[in-house]
Amino acid sequence: MNDGKLVQEPGPGVAAGADVSGQDGGLAACRLTILPASLLEEIEKYGLESLGRSAPNRWMLPVIASWGLLYVARLGADIVGSAQIIRCLQKGDLFMDAFYIRPDYRGAGHGKAFLSGLKKELAELGFQRLLATLEPENSAGVRLYAGCGFEIVDNLPDYYGKERHRFLIASSLAVI
Ligand SMILES: CC(C)(COP(=O)(O)OP(=O)(O)OC[C@H]1O[C@@H](n2cnc3c(N)ncnc32)[C@H](O)[C@@H]1OP(=O)(O)O)[C@@H](O)C(=O)NCCC(=O)NCCS
To answer: Pairing state of beta strands 93-101 and 69-75?
Structure first.
């Protein structure tokens, strides 16, 4: 289902794409390294729709694209989701944030295909572990991450302020 091969030549804002296509007909995880103005505006808008005020904005997206890892999930020409990733001080570890699938595309397996494809690509880049935070009440997120091999490694009480608790979750990149 997911052979992780590169399927896309670098185009405007696109560095590489890992094919994570399944029966749904072709989701690709594409890393963006530069963000032309129209693409920046588009991704900022999609982030706001899915994540509200916690979405990365136009000041953060180019920084992550240049110095971290910024991915979009593409279905044909459509961007249907995104995720941003930074390297941790602990060698081999990455931290992922702002992972989403756009509302109109949810419930069709794209979240799982995108996350599995990202794990495979990050493993191929030589990283060992992917960490993230997860809101305990986010039932879709809990199922998605559990189905992709993540486990709770810590509790983070009041992580984003009073009563905004999070789990710290992690998955080995050796096992997809
Ligand atoms: C979480 C999110 C990425 C899931 O995307 P998706 O494309 O709908 O996910 P999938 O269709 O691949 O489903 C993945 C799993 O979640 C389950 N799921 C999907 N939507 C669900 C919902 N509303 N309630 C409960 N479970 C749900 C699916 O049944 C599937 O579980 P299974 O593999 O055990 O059957 C999407 O809802 C989203 O972007 N939410 C807002 C941002 C967010 O919460 N990000 C993740 C945490 S930071």
So the answer is: unpaired
pLDDT digits (tens, 9 = 90+) for 106-131: 999 999 999 999 999 999 999 999 99
122 within a domain of the structure (yes/no):
yes
Domain that holds residue 48: 6-129
For residue 133, with 0-12 CB atoms within 10 Å meaning exposed, 13-18 middle and 19 or more buried, which class applies? Answer: middle
CA of residue 110 to ligand 1 center, whole Å: 9
By alpha-carbon position, which residue is closest to atom 33 of ligand 1? Answer: 147
**Single-letter residue type at 84:** Q
| CB-defined site of ligand 1, < 6 Å | 50-51, 99-101, 106-112, 134, 138-141, 143-144, 147
- How many domains would you assign to the chain? 1
pTM summary value = 0.90
- Report the CATH number that the domain containing residue 12 is assigned in CATH: 3.40.630.30
- Label residue 26 by pLDDT band (50, 70, 90): confident
CB burial of residue 64 (10 Å; 0-12, 13-18, 19+):
buried
Helix (H) or strand (E) holding 1: none
- Name which residue sits closest to atom 44 of ligand 1, judged by CA: 141
Cα 91 to ligand 1 centroid, rounded to whole Å: 30
Cα(first)–Cα(last) distance of the chain, in Å?
Answer: 12
